[in-house]
Design goal:
2 domains; 9 strands; Alpha/beta knot
């Protein structure tokens, strides 16, 4: 394969490659850009979906930076072992504290931004957490594998454990990408229409109202008349009523919280 072309006349030159991680090395750099660092055994799966659409453009434009740290390079011995059997016995393997500590010190250093371990026993990830992370200058994510991570390293570094939900995955890479997707889209300049962020699900503690578009009549079903009335007041009321109805029906937990916050 020929060499990657260099930048010319201030333009960004990108060469197609089968390795999506190459895009990370060709991205621009903007002062104050959000930096996402991922400690993982599978750095080749990044940026994955984060390299597509608006987030991919923002990555190329330098609005955020992605740095993957291969945990295997910090492993022990000839075979770079990163795990061992659980103390006390049992099935599976556990990520070693000494190996992970070396990776964290390399990746996180003295950074003040959050250090997060994607774990099914962590606090459930939600919109409020995404908003909190989006206000930081970056985040360091640990994509777990096997039976988890030695508790001593979690305690030592004060690692925040975060879960996508009450289910178990084979690893934390997909979870890390989901967390970054929800977080990065809240950063200034990533989503073109900031107003759209204010109306979507969870932004006001409610699920989003139903959406419609052309054609006006599809398979005998028509758009609710109020949405084509031109009366913005009625449209706003309909959307609010529908958001409350859907939240009450589908997420009674959110509805109860909403009623507590807005009695």
């Amino acid at each position: 394969m020929s060499k990657t072309p260099s930048k010319s006349h201030g333009r960004l030159s990108i060469q197609a490659s089968a390795a999506p991680r190459d895009l990370m090395g060709q991205a621009k750099s903007v002062r104050g850009a959000f930096t996402a660092k991922i400690i993982t055994l599978f750095p080749e799966v990044f940026p994955g979906v984060l390299g597509a659409s608006l987030l991919g453009k923002a990555l190329q434009d330098g609005l955020w930076k992605l740095d993957t740290i291969d945990l295997r390079t910090f492993g022990e011995g000839k075979h770079r072992n990163v795990d061992d059997t659980p103390a006390g016995g049992g099935a599976g393997m556990v990520l070693r504290a000494d190996v992970m500590a070396r990776a964290i010190k390399f990746a996180h250093g003295r950074a003040r931004h959050p250090l997060v371990f994607m774990s099914p026993r962590g606090r459930p990830f939600d919109q409020a957490m995404a908003e909190r992370f989006s206000k930081e200058d970056g985040i360091t994510l640990i994509a777990g594998r096997f039976e988890g991570l030695d508790q001593r390293v979690i305690d030592h570094f004060g690692i925040e454990e975060v879960s996508l939900g009450d289910f178990v995955m084979t690893g934390g890479e997909i979870a890390a990408q989901a967390l970054l997707d929800a977080t990065l889209r809240l950063r200034p300049g990533v989503i073109g229409n900031a107003a759209s962020l204010e109306e979507e699900s969870f932004s006001a503690g409610l699920l989003e109202h139903p959406q419609y578009t052309r054609p006006a009549d599809w398979e005998g079903q028509t758009i609710p008349e109020v949405l084509t009335s031109g009366d913005h007041g009625k449209v706003a009321k309909w959307r609010r009523d529908e958001a409350e109805r859907l939240t009450q029906e589908r997420r009674p937990d959110l509805w109860a919280q909403f009623k507590r916050d807005f009695p």
